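[scheduler] slot 2 assigned
[scheduler] job type: sequence-to-structure, two independent chains
[scheduler] chain ordering preserved from manifest
[runner] begin chain α
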Amino acid sequence: MDVQSAALIGAGIAVLTGLGAGFGIPLATGKTSEAIARQPEASGKITGSFLLGIALAEATAIYGLVVALLLIFK
């Protein structure tokens, strides 16, 4: 296996980090909706934590994309 093939395989594996965001963000959205429905007075705190979690989940997907692009255009 040459270096280019290994880099492309690594890029494919790096893109799989998007699966975490793809499954995690809808799950967090559903749980946030449930939490706000149970305690509407705490919606400000719940929303703040939700947005922070979404940002971290999306950051992992973006890091995977950047690593994949670096491997492809190496």
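[runner] end chain α
[runner] begin chain β
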Amino acid sequence: MELTDIVGILSRLIHISSAVTLLGGLLFARQVLVAVGQTDLIARYSTAMQAAIAGLLLSGLYNLLTKAALPKGYHAIFGIKFLLALHVFAVALLLPKADAAKRARSLTGILVSGGLILALSAYLRYLTLNP
């Protein structure tokens, strides 16, 4: 196994674990913290959110730049995925400053976008494995 293979695996690991951290924490916030009226606790999660966002941006950029030949349509789907990701990042970073009612709506929107991102990611993976 070459060094580039190891870096590629680590980058993929960082990307997936950052996505799990970000969306998992936001899902918990939406399903549990909103239900018990404790959305103010989201502020404690903001450092982990910021780290996950940084991990997603850096590893995603690395993963994109190191892909060899991309199939037709890949960039269009990736562009949609990236715009949805920017929506998730922006709203997640603004979440601790929002009032409680807006937090619940914002979390719902983030989770819908996050689900779409996961679906697009699965499709992009399919495209690269089946050109």
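[runner] end chain β
[qc] chain β: The chain has one domain: 3-129.
[scheduler] slot 2 released
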